[in-house]
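A common beginner's mistake is to predict each chain separately and then try to dock the pieces by hand. The better habit, illustrated here, is to supply every component at once so that their relative placement is modeled jointly.
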Amino acid sequence: MISPFHTIRWIGGIDGHLILLDQTRLPVENVYLDCRTVEDVWQAIRRLAVRGAPAIGVTAAYGVCLGVKPGRSIDEVCDYLATSRPTAVNLFWALERMRRVGQVPRDPPIDEAYGGSRGTRHTLQERLLAEARAIHDEDRQQCAAMARFGADLLADLPDGAGILTHCNTGALATGGDGTALAVIFELARRGKRPYVWVDETRPLLQGARLTMWELQQRGIDATLICDSAAAQVMREGSVQAVITGADRIAANGDTANKIGTFSVATLAQVFGIPFYVAAPATTFDLSIASGREIPIEQRPGEEVTNGFDKPTAPADVNVYNPAFDVTPAELIAAIITDRGVVRPVSEDTIHAATSV
Amino acid sequence: MISPFHTIRWIGGIDGHLILLDQTRLPVENVYLDCRTVEDVWQAIRRLAVRGAPAIGVTAAYGVCLGVKPGRSIDEVCDYLATSRPTAVNLFWALERMRRVGQVPRDPPIDEAYGGSRGTRHTLQERLLAEARAIHDEDRQQCAAMARFGADLLADLPDGAGILTHCNTGALATGGDGTALAVIFELARRGKRPYVWVDETRPLLQGARLTMWELQQRGIDATLICDSAAAQVMREGSVQAVITGADRIAANGDTANKIGTFSVATLAQVFGIPFYVAAPATTFDLSIASGREIPIEQRPGEEVTNGFDKPTAPADVNVYNPAFDVTPAELIAAIITDRGVVRPVSEDTIHAATSV
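With all components supplied together, the output reads:
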């Protein structure tokens, strides 16, 4: 079943523009943002109009296409886009791929690309757009591969098994059908009737607003809970597996993901429920040894105290609002990637899987 | 320091009325509700204008004073008020005390109280009001006693120690200064400079709206977090103790409290952080053996999907919204009561403490 919305869509050729579904307005309104400058794209990423590690990567790649112009180099544009959000490594990975488009010597020489003749610039821009499209296409394929590997891994779950998830990891979070949620979609496609428990995912309610919306559209049974009710649902025996996405995975398997993921993973271990992560190889950052080195984005306290245009706490209170936390590898039963399942999760198995 | 608001205030004599601070409007507005009928009181309890187990008990006692009239017996009024909320046992305990006012043979005989002469009715109503005032006064004293016992128990915490709490257990939740929060107030009064981590407490945000407000008013350092961030804050080593209130404690020590308490208690155990409950003896229900018998109130899904006067989930989704969960006794390091500290928590120690 094809999802009836477009998270990220490039319209036209090299002089085209980027259309993003404004996820801050969901599920109340389907509003599309028309991004015609790299600044538009930076803003869209920063204010979470588009979010989800793979989707951020794809969006940033298209953002480079909008930003590179005579007098504005690829590096300059990539450096700028890299400041939009700090944690999801897919952003930096996609920008690195875009940078390399400019670094490969070509005929005509790359020097001419900047401020050169119009024809030369177009050539670079064509290559940039082709690369962004390739990143987008590959992400779609990676989603499909994760869905298959994940559904194979969870094939032994009984029909109607409860699967708990946190945040949004579906078609809204990727260039394709999703990471963790795509696994659930694939289980449903195979007739397993998964029953999904959806953490609302404070402060920005990506679970309530986005995951419930995607599941509803696909007709998959789901129940929304407050994040703090996950322990109770687990205790009631309603959860047979937990699956989430990832924003960055260190070489040892420590995984940064939406704040609350570490809580869910810890509780899952207490209750003997397997905790799975689904993420494409682009989410691994082998340059860092462990989760301690993953920079954690601190978001404004207003997301907690004024998140819905209404004050929900006294003015001027201290708020600690990390956007992510890090789940240590030892809590993760397996990482489902587009190249196969990493299990057990260790430096060696990750190295083997990502060097395929 | 005296809190500058009145949670529950009876105005006048037996023909008086009840003023409640409407907690659903906090912290944006200080609005007082004027309850002149028992129906007003029932509504105030049901829609959480007044909440917190001890405060519900005190409020219900005054509600009986408003409800008993010629042609409307104490039992009738108590049966009605008992339907307002199911979990907090203080409600039923307070109503039972009010019922007994009507059961004790007096001169003039109690029979005359119903539909009897005006003088006779006044006599019953005077006794009812005296009993409600006694319940209120005792609750104040119980709060003070818990604060002292709790601060003694936590006396070894270093200055500036982090204490995590969930929901609201202060002067807004009781007839006095609070249960768990009163312990923190007392630590501050003794110069210990507690640093409080406050779970916002979805869905109704009693932590963000009410606890942060009370702590701010008393000048106690506090930081607000999303419920799902508690695990991360614990891992960072910022929490030296967790303390919450209770809505009902079974004979074996299993404790019903705001949804999310069980999650926090489980995480505290994982991190080796002591988890304490503070509750007056009136919160114990020795008639039930374990937490399995505690009825858990299911609240409307709209609290989760529309809690900010704005839809935060698609229409017509399933929601599981239990107002409470049960923390098993084995996760509770000690229960701080107005009669002393129950530690370890077991049927024997509870029996001994509550039969003092």
